[in-house]
């Protein structure tokens, strides 16, 4: 007796796979209605297609945008990830205009953006590590330094860097952090608080005429670690002068030189660099160190402005140390978000 195959009947009288195929077919028919037989789908949307190609070229060739006029190259690199917002806008325009040309052109900026920033979207956070570090530009006009100190100390950081300290606020931070940190040092407007002994503390010359950076050795249980705390000069965007960052750029070169001459193999840089990892003007520093956010973070980790973060200008960078995780901390009364990272000081390179 021949076997007869049966299909499970669905509410619309068709089998499960058939119903699914019918739904997809109806959706495609709805989306493509009006496109079939329309020869103008290749002629419409030329402007949108050109904009898509230009966006891809800016992202792909950003390093070739000159800085001679208003530091346009650095300004573009600071907000480079946000060019990806053009894609959904142009996609909607292409669909409304029923332009096949614009849709195909969108493949270019999508591919370039994913190549540049796709790795930041994924979660690279790991476990383990033996040292937690954090940094925060506390804002010179912070109305509640005591509360801010307690909030960042709650992160559990073993080493904490603070920037934009005022002479009046330093004693307040010292009192508020004394129970969590036995050791600390302040040089000019920056300071470092540590649960482990500090030594060889000295200011770092950023060619400004006053102190906005320091260097210290932290005696971690895994061995000595060189910690740099820095606050680069501010940058401004002006209509008549563009992206003014000359002082910041000179200071970055000075900081990069100091780190290049560091004798300890394991180095951590904490601070407000007033620039992103993409900004070529910070190359003297970024070329020799790794971003903990880029190596072991989740997302972009934007830190400024705190009310609506648009860029990560606060940085934790390492050399000879393995990043394990990196994240932003809850907002305080500062205009910056504090950031933290977990690192492995004992690496295979240093322990062998």
From TrEMBL:
Molecular function per GO: endonuclease activity
Keywords: Endonuclease, Hydrolase, Membrane, Nuclease, Transmembrane, Transmembrane helix
Keyword Transmembrane: yes
Annotated Endonuclease/exonuclease/phosphatase domain residues: 134-336
Stretches for region Disordered: 1-20
Pfam assignment, any one: Exo_endo_phos
Domain of life per record: Bacteria
Signal peptide region: none
Gene3D superfamilies in UniProt: Endonuclease/exonuclease/phosphatase
Transmembrane residue ranges: 41-59, 79-96, 103-121
The protein's name in its UniProt record: Endonuclease/exonuclease/phosphatase family protein
Species of provenance: Streptomyces andamanensis
Lineage: Bacteria, Bacillati, Actinomycetota, Actinomycetes, Kitasatosporales
């Amino acid at each position: 007796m021949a076997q007869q195959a049966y299909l499970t009947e669905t509410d619309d009288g068709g089998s499960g796979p058939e119903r699914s195929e019918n739904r997809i077919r109806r959706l495609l028919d709805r989306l493509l209605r009006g496109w079939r037989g329309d020869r103008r789908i290749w002629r419409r949307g030329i402007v949108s297609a050109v904009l898509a190609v230009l966006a891809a070229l800016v992202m792909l060739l950003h390093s070739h945008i000159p800085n001679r006029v208003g530091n346009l190259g650095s300004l573009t690199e600071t907000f480079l990830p946000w060019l990806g917002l053009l894609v959904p806008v142009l996609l909607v325009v292409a669909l409304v205009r029923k332009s096949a040309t614009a849709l195909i052109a969108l493949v270019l900026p999508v591919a370039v953006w994913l190549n540049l920033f796709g790795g930041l979207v994924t979660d690279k956070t790991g476990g383990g590590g033996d040292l937690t570090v954090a940094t925060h530009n506390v804002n010179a006009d912070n109305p509640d330094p005591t509360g801010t100190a307690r909030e960042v100390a709650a992160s559990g950081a073993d080493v904490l860097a603070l920037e934009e300290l005022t002479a009046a606020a330093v004693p307040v931070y010292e009192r508020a952090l004394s129970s969590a940190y036995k050791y600390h040092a302040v040089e000019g407007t920056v300071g470092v608080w540590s649960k482990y002994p500090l030594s060889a503390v000295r200011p770092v010359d950023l060619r400004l005429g006053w102190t906005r950076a320091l260097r210290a050795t932290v005696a971690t249980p895994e061995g000595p670690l060189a910690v740099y705390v820095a606050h680069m000069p501010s940058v401004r965007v002006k209509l008549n002068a563009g992206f003014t960052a000359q002082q910041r750029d000179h200071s970055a070169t000075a900081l990069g030189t100091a780190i290049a001459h560091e004798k300890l193999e394991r180095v951590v840089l904490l601070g407000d660099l007033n620039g992103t990892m993409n900004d070529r003007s910070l190359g003297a520093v970024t070329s020799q160190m790794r971003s903990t956010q880029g190596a072991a973070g989740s997302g972009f980790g934007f830190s400024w402005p705190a009310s609506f973060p648009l860029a990560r200008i606060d940085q934790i960078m390492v050399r000879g140390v393995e990043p394990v995780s990196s994240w932003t901390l809850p907002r305080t009364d500062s205009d910056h978000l504090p950031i933290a990272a977990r690192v492995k000081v004992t690496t295979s390179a240093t322990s062998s």
